[in-house]
Amino acid sequence: MIVKTVNSLYEVRDDEKRFRQLGDPKDAAWHDYERMGPVLLHEPLRFFSLTGARGSSATMSVWATAPVEGVVHDDGTREPRRQGRLAS
Known about the structure:
The chain has one domain (2-79). The protein is 0% helix and 57% strand. It is built from no helices and 9 strands. The protein has strands at 2-5, 9-13, 18-22, 31-32, 35-36, 39-40, 44-54, 57-72, 85-87. The strands form 2 sheets. Strands 4-3-2-1-8-7-5 form a 7-stranded antiparallel β-sheet, with no helix packed on it. The protein has a two-stranded antiparallel sheet with strand order 6-9. Strand 2 and strand 3 form a beta hairpin. The model has no long low-confidence stretch (mean pLDDT 86).
């Protein structure tokens, strides 16, 4: 799916647990994540990943986007612009 935020576009491949920011040549790399937060209109989208795993402990890192403005699914359908959950 494509997630449009106030200032960026993100391609999210939830089945592969990875995302990337589109249109920014400095950060076009794919980023892996363990869990993605809910996609909510006017709220940041958050990606959570484990980093620095040592034995039985690890550090959780969070990537938060600017507030979400809309979603385009892989089949081309668009989510309505309304408050609340847009995609799962």
